[in-house]
Specification:
By secondary structure, the protein is of the alpha/beta class. The protein has one domain (about 10-295): Ribonuclease Z/Hydroxyacylglutathione hydrolase-like (Metallo-beta-lactamase, Chain A, 4-Layer Sandwich). The protein is about 20% helix and about 25% strand. It has helices spanning about 55-70, 85-90, 115-125, 200-205, 220-225, 235-245, 260-275; strands at about 10-15, 35-40, 50, 75-80, 105-110, 140-145, 150, 155-160, 170-175, 180-185, 210-215, 250-255, 280-285, 290-295. The longest helix is centred in the last third of the chain and has 17 residues, at about 260-275. It binds zinc ion (2 copies).
């Protein structure tokens, strides 16, 4: 189903599931190499996307086909976790942003001492890139977000700061009878005084009973132990967060580029074993192109 058509029930589609940097080659064939970009479709309203990694370009292509088929201009809100390259590099290649009739708002993290627009202008200008944010269509806007609650139409959004190497938000969307939480980059080791199994109240609040929790699962536990300050989670910690918060389904996400398909299969099996031992949530490993329909009230 094309995102601009009217979905009959809420659905999440993964356009990019990789962390750090896009990658390609045979070992990434099944899980995919595009960086973070996820679409949440909701009945009766415009879709919401999470992050602007390289996967957002494919979503742009889908939306452009919808425009060409006559469904009307693109409307989309984006919840942007932070400004690391792997979460923003797709924006200049998101073609609908340049159309005059598109209505698009990027709700992203407040930046110290400058606006979100100014931060993007700093990275989207020569000699880094030839296109600036001024070239987006008239309906394109940035919205500076902190730790707060706000609404996008009838969707209720909760944003909270999470532990990472630079200011980063996690989001929860409650709408159409479902709850989806997105915490792309989250590293417990960023606060060295936190015990290994500590889950901050803000993270519990984001994940509490969520129908779907999409969470950083970049590393094995051994990798996490070797680089605790890199700002990411082990699969063990991701399962722990989901179980502590009572999430119903955990999607392992932000896969490390060092991990090929077979590595991720093994990590998924390990995560499922961990969850089964503590009667935790269903576990999946997100893959590019995967579409999950969410049942309201499940
Ligand atoms: Zn990242
Ligand atoms: Zn990051």
């Amino acid at each position: 189903m094309a995102p601009s058509s009217v979905p009959v029930q809420p659905a999440v589609t993964f356009y990019g599931v990789r962390g750090s940097v896009p990658c390609s080659g045979p070992r990434y064939h099944r899980y995919g190499g595009n960086t973070s970009a996820v679409l949440l479709e909701l009945p009766g309203r415009a879709p919401i996307a999470f992050d602007l990694g390289s996967g957002i370009r494919d979503l742009g292509d889908v939306l452009m086909k919808s425009v060409a088929s006559g469904v009307g201009p693109v409307e989309i809100d984006v919840l942007l976790t932070h400004l690391h390259w792997d979460h923003v590099l797709g924006l200049p290649f998101f073609t609908p942003a340049f159309l005059p009739d598109t209505r698009m708002t990027v709700h992203g993290p407040q930046q110290p001492g400058r606006s979100l627009r100014d931060a993007f202008t700093g990275m989207m200008q020569p000699p880094y890139f030839p296109i600036t944010p001024d070239e987006f269509g008239a309906g394109f806007a940035f919205a500076d977000v902190g730790s707060e609650r706000f609404e996008i139409g009838d969707a209720r959004v909760l944003s909270r700061w999470v532990r990472h190497t630079d200011p980063a938000l996690g989001f929860r969307v409650d709408a159409a009878g479902v709850s989806v939480t997105y915490i792309a980059d989250h590293g417990p080791g960023c606060v060295p005084t936190d015990p290994d199994d500590f889950v901050p109240d803000d993270v519990i609040e984001l994940c509490d009973g969520a129908d779907l929790l999409i969470h950083d699962a970049q590393y094995t536990q051994a990798e996490q132990d070797a680089r605790p300050h890199f700002g990411h989670s082990s699969i063990d910690y991701a399962v722990h967060v989901a179980a502590e918060a009572g999430a119903k389904c955990l999607a392992l996400f932000h896969h490390c580029p060092n991990h090929g398909d077979d590595d991720l299969d093994a990590m998924l099996e390990h995560a499922r074993d961990l969850s089964a031992k503590r009667n935790g949530p269903e576990i999946i490993a997100a893959h590019q192109g995967q579409r999950l329909e969410l049942a309201p009230g499940s």
